[in-house]
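Replying to the earlier thread about multi-chain prediction with a worked example.

Input:
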Amino acid sequence: MKIGVLGAGQLGRMLALAGLPLEMQFSFYDTSGAPSVGIGNVFIDQGGTGKDLDSFLADVDIVTSEFEHIPLDLARKIESRKMLLPSSESTRVCQNRGEEKRLFTKLGIPTPKYHLVDSLAAFESAVEQLGCPVVAKTVTDGYDGKGQAVIRDPADVASAWNRIGNTQLIVEKFVNFSRELSIIAVRSKSGQLAFYPLTENTHHEGILRYSVAPAPRISPELDKQAQCYIGELLEALNHVGILTLELFETEQGLLANEMAPRVHNSGHWSIEGANCSQFENHLRAIADLPLGDCQAQQPTCMINIISEKGDIQGLLRLPYAHIHLYGKDERKGRKLGHVTVQADSYKELTWRIRNVAAHLPGSPEYHPTENR
Amino acid sequence: MKIGVLGAGQLGRMLALAGLPLEMQFSFYDTSGAPSVGIGNVFIDQGGTGKDLDSFLADVDIVTSEFEHIPLDLARKIESRKMLLPSSESTRVCQNRGEEKRLFTKLGIPTPKYHLVDSLAAFESAVEQLGCPVVAKTVTDGYDGKGQAVIRDPADVASAWNRIGNTQLIVEKFVNFSRELSIIAVRSKSGQLAFYPLTENTHHEGILRYSVAPAPRISPELDKQAQCYIGELLEALNHVGILTLELFETEQGLLANEMAPRVHNSGHWSIEGANCSQFENHLRAIADLPLGDCQAQQPTCMINIISEKGDIQGLLRLPYAHIHLYGKDERKGRKLGHVTVQADSYKELTWRIRNVAAHLPGSPEYHPTENR
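Result:
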């Protein structure tokens, strides 16, 4: 089976590394002009003439995506010619924070209080009703802290509007959360479902730094609750493939933050940590193969390599470190790779995480959540 | 770093899958005309004009090999232009069973009793001195049971000579072994050594079927003994990369059977079963990076998929099965892929192996050695 991937970055690369042992072949369609995938056929669309798109589509049996910011008309055009999984409908909802939140609300999935605004006046009124602090985000684009503002004083609304002002913003009540969690689930073409355990995510400067799976101190009820939420989303979207739901853990329970219709950075731990990684399960799902086992075998942590590659030789000397580099040049804030570590206990895991982080300049200190 | 691999089969493919996350790039040089690697640049030498060899060598920083049957003059030609690791000296010794056994003997590594013969008369005399049964093998070529004969009656010597007769044969006293073991070790360019645990191998119709690591019921002394033997071989050959030594376990202790200067089928378990697989360690060794951890995390078994792919859907349904297919068409006796399973105990491992084998037609029944 020939898989076409929209995008040609590290997620596409990890998909290919997971799919080659299942005798899948890979082609990538890149519009950024800077593919780092380093594997398979890469079609670079220069100027969007569509010629490269034709060659790409002629080369593949089925199309999937490594990112959700595909122009919708492109997704629909592809869909008219080849099977696109997940479909353009998943893309449409997930690439718009407004649509996303509306779906959460419709399905009864709790979220932080929010208003959708499309003018300065509406923005001001939303801030007044919600009460500061609030987080304002563009409904489209923006990730890893870009295109958003935290408003602590109503007087700052106008400057935030001028800075990130868009046709539409989502304004959310600032949530007092104890930690950020995510759940990754997968649904196959014939409707089989499988769930990875809740993962605990630590961000720094708006970028994911650490993901620990299974998240420690999760009751079976909470895990079940998260599965229930993402299960409803998968069905409502008729989604095929991996779906990721980011959640806040609060005193009022789980609140849905956002979702991504794709393999996710907070699931990279599964390459070593689960019997079947998110990458392999995404491919099994779209190829309509039986889904693989999602359980974490033992406490596992994924540590992102951001901005600089750091002391790779030192990392290679750590017997428990699995190093994944993405073939990208160093640049501030860029995800260049990740390291996975596992341990028998969370205590030992913490030491191992710190030993890895010591070789990565700029990594924030790691503190297990109970000690924060 | 750009790695050039001589050969373009499944071993090259698994090398590339291990090396891409370390930002290595891969090119393959194939003379068989049937590359199955499905990854990297493949240079197919049509008629051995050398043109393709030039392009291949221009494309890479360092050259390694996935098989030991490279013509020696080709290995030396490559070596005069690029770093070849392991070197042509390792190749020269390992591709000749006579040279190999002489080195074992020189280093004091016990072997079955053997004679090297190059005529029917010498063959007859060897059989007389060793006493039947003996195994006769061509000193070059031949693997997985090809190019060899078991002689149970001196009257059969002439017909065996006619069938497998070569310029030189090695005639070995048939060994009464309790099981076949192998040890895989790795030596880096700067001389660092690391050892995988002894692995128990089960053959059927001359082809490896099951490898269990660590081999059960191995005393620390026996493991040490095997490490000592392979360590001496690595040093004597000034070998860089993975080396595999096949051994017989007998009442007189370990006897060396043969060695291979490359990643080996009996080490495929290490992809899931060790922190650092044989493929990654081979690449670390030739790139002179620190070597990775070789320990088996828990009892692990590699089951070969031979001749037919079998019920892949059924295998995908087993939550503990890791499936590796090589992108090759079915053919009698051909290695088409392998499945890895792990378990907390050898008892549970046996059940899992049998569940896997049930989906692979033609697989011999698996019996743990203590029950044979």
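Chain A has three domains: 2-84, 113-173, 179-371.

Feel free to reuse this layout for your own posts.
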